[in-house]
């Protein structure tokens, strides 16, 4: 187990996944803060921390469930036509449906953030919360909604890194625990950074489109899909790591250039 966690692929997957979990968790932090801020001041921090810890437990349970489904790789139906051949399994169905969901969700989120960024926040603000129990329940419901794309992202980043699904599951759990821990300890600084640089969150959503497409191709590869006799190959995860790293490098340069431009005195 330790040998696997120290491999280059595992470390890259862990770093990338933790980063994405944090970036994608910004909305979660915002909505949790809105729910907690309806309580008296002395209860807000308690509600936020308890809510995030229960959210972490909820995500780990969901990871076990999804990982179990992905482990069902034995085909239960084979479609064989003159132009298409597919060995359908639950693993392929989950990966394919998850890929489609990530592409749909991230595209919808990008559109919403550009055209009506305050829509969901205004809806949540209109809901009444009068007790700590109500706030925690609300936080759990919010996190469940955000857990779906988070878990699918984790699956996309770790699937087939190791033949033993339990090893991949441990890697996903470590990333979730680290990201939730960082959100608990640095929620406000992270949120302020994203407020100043909203393009980072849009970039994270764009990464989800890449991961969604990778899940679809992986589903086709694992189900031995053939189009007109041509087999669908899996996309090496190194390509994804390079795309993400290069995009972040470009964004870093943009941030540095904008800072220098802002500091430059006007003539």
From TrEMBL:
It comes from the Bacteria. The keyword Membrane applies. Its main location: membrane. It is found in: Membrane. The chain crosses the membrane at residues 12-35, 47-70, 82-104, 135-157, 169-190, 202-219, 239-257. It holds the Pfam family TerC. InterPro entries: Integral_membrane_TerC (IPR005496), MFS_trans_sf (IPR036259). Keywords: Membrane, Transmembrane, Transmembrane helix. It is a multi-pass membrane protein. GO terms for cellular component: membrane. Belongs to the TerC family. This is Putative tellurium resistance membrane protein TerC.
């Amino acid at each position: 187990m330790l040998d696997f966690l120290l491999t280059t692929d595992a470390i890259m997957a862990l770093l990338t996944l933790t980063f994405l979990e944090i970036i994608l968790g910004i909305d979660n932090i915002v909505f949790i803060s809105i729910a907690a801020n309806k309580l008296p001041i002395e209860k807000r921090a308690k509600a936020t921390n308890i809510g995030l810890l229960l959210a972490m437990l909820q995500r780990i349970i969901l990871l076990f469930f999804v990982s179990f489904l992905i482990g069902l790789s034995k085909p239960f139906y084979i479609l064989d036509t003159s132009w298409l051949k597919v060995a359908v399994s639950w693993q392929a169905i989950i990966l394919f449906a998850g890929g489609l969901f990530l592409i749909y969700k991230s595209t919808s989120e990008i559109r919403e953030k550009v055209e009506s960024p305050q829509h969901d926040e205004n809806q949540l603000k209109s809901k009444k919360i009068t007790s700590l129990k109500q706030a925690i329940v609300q936080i759990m419901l919010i996190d469940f909604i955000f857990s779906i794309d988070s878990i699918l992202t984790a699956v996309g980043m770790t699937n087939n890194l190791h033949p033993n699904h339990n090893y991949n599951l441990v890697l996903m759990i470590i990333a979730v625990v680290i990201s939730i821990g960082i959100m608990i300890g640095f929620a406000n600084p992270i949120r302020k950074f994203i407020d100043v640089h909203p393009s980072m969150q849009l970039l994270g959503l764009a990464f989800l489109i890449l991961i969604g497409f990778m899940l679809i191709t992986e589903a086709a590869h694992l189900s031995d899909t053939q189009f007109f006799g041509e087999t669908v190959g899996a996309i090496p995860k190194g390509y994804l790591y390079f795309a993400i790293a290069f995009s972040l490098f470009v964004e870093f340069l943009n941030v540095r250039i904008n800072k220098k431009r802002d500091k430059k005195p006007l003539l």
